[in-house]
Amino acid sequence: MIQQPEGSVLAVRNLTKIYPNGACAVNGITLSIASDDFLVVIGSSGAGKSTFLRCLNRLVTPTSGEIYLGGDEVTRASGRALRGVRRRVGMIFQQFNLVRRLTVLENVLVGRLRFCSGPVEGGSSLFRRFSRAEQELAFSLLRQVGIEQLAYQRADALSGGQQQRVAIARTLAQHPDVFLADEPIASLDPKSSEVIMGLLRTIHEERGIPVVINLHHIDFARCYAKRVVGISGGSLVFDGRPDELTPEVVEAIYGKGRHAPEPVSICA
Ligand SMILES: Nc1ncnc2c1ncn2[C@@H]1O[C@H](COP(=O)(O)OP(=O)(O)OP(=O)(O)O)[C@@H](O)[C@H]1O
Ligand SMILES: [Mg+2]
């Protein structure tokens, strides 16, 4: 029976992940994510943020609990259903994860491979698989993230901020229902960080899809999030608005006597 709460795009119930070495990274998290959520997950290093996000698209297989995506149960999906989950739950990472020797355009087209059947090939043979319409779609996505002029550059010739824009365009190419970002600005300078956070906000507003972002910086969470979730020791310890992040709440998230990462000067 489908038990997804009404109005949620993604729902998690009693999610737990214990790694084979015994580390309990996620401990019984229950959470519903709706299309109007621009949600930032905060917590200290090792709190379980990445593990939580990776469970949502089954990059990590949960030990127990349930995840519902548009009525489908994610934790038991396999084969074609699992590929469908991975297409619908798009994700970007701190290290961008581009194919370095491919061009920017080809990297975006990689996002379209989830719509193709057959083996994945590399180089120019990859490029020839795509119709003119697919290539135009890739160009329009590059335009949306502001780097259309870099379409024929190799990915490894780009700055970190530009590479993250390519990763965003690649993820958009798979038409996700949910957009996840694991520390998307951790390798970037403050200016590029603001550009990337702004792009994620625009994606949320224009496409009407939920965006879930893991962040170290509490200040970026305060500036950009509509909703903040705090994780400590694998457990959900806060779920509220950014203006509810009082010093007591911050201490509960980051631990007594421990401090949140240093504030950075941001926010227009
Ligand atoms: N593949 C793994 N095998 C065993 N333990 C792991 C694995 N990945 C993570 N862990 C452990 O699970 C816990 C949560 O790790 P996770 O990477 O999810 O935290 P995080 O909040 O994302 O941390 P950070 O802010 O440093 O990225 C940690 O104790 C970590 O050591
Ligand atoms: Mg992490």
Description of the structure:
A hairpin with a 2-residue loop joins strand 4 and strand 5 (72-73). The chain contains nine helices and ten strands. Helix content is 34%, strand content 23%. With 268 residues, it is of the alpha/beta class. The strands form two sheets. Strands 6-7-8-3-9-10 form a six-stranded mixed sheet, sandwiched between helices. The protein has a four-stranded antiparallel sheet with strand order 2-1-4-5, with helices on one face. Helix 5 (132-144) packs across helix 6 (160-173) and helix 6 (160-173) runs parallel beside helix 7 (190-207). The radius of gyration is 19 Å and the shape is globular. It has a domain at 8-97 and 178-254: Rossmann fold (3-Layer(aba) Sandwich), CATH 3.40.50.300. The structure holds adenosine-5'-triphosphate and magnesium ion. Magnesium ion is lined by residues 49-50, 183, 214.
Q: TL;DR?
A:
By secondary structure, this protein is an alpha/beta fold. The chain has helices at residues 49-56, 79-88, 104-110, 123-128, 132-144, 160-173, 190-207, 218-224, 247-254; strands at 8-18, 24-34, 38-42, 64-69, 72-73, 89-93, 178-182, 211-214, 227-232, 235-240. The protein contains 9 helices and 10 strands.
The general outline is: globular
Which strand order does the major sheet show?
Answer: 6-7-8-3-9-10
**Strand-and-helix sequence, N→C?**
EEEHEEHEHHHHEHEHEEH
Quote the CATH topology of the domain at 8-97 and 178-254.
Rossmann fold
Q: At CATH's second level, what is the architecture of the domain at 8-97 and 178-254?
A: 3-Layer(aba) Sandwich
How large a portion of the residues is in β-strands, by DSSP E? 15-25%
